[in-house]
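ok trying again, last paste got cut off:
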Amino acid sequence: MKVLVDTSIWSLALRKKTLAPDEKRIVDEFKELIYELRVVVIGPVLQELLSGISDINKFKSLKNKLSSFETMKIGRKEYEMAAEISKICRRNGIQGSHIDFLIVSFAINNNIKIFTTDKDFSYYKKIIKKINLHEVRKDFK
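nice, full thing came through this time. structure:
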């Protein structure tokens, strides 16, 4: 199954020099997903990643590296569903970002798991049962 990798994972892998043991396991899992050709990128995550780079040379380098990953197209149904999910979550006392809800709707509509360190997604999952979160495999070394 394909995995939509959230900005939090990319940032951990690309920016952090020293990793705690749990963070290392997450980055190793991410690398394994890349090796398995299971990583999916969408435009809003790509934009978040590139927007966080101020140095022009690092920006160009990251842009070049990210071009190796196909950017999946987001359609009208994902945007509409993201709005519905936002309303459902708000009615249940859970706030979230527009991009988070777009990630959720895209993943649900395309039967894709979400890999993130953002705890908000576990709150969304309590309300939106169809969310499928990817976890670091226990047997993964």
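cool. The mean pLDDT is 94. The chain has one domain: 3-127.
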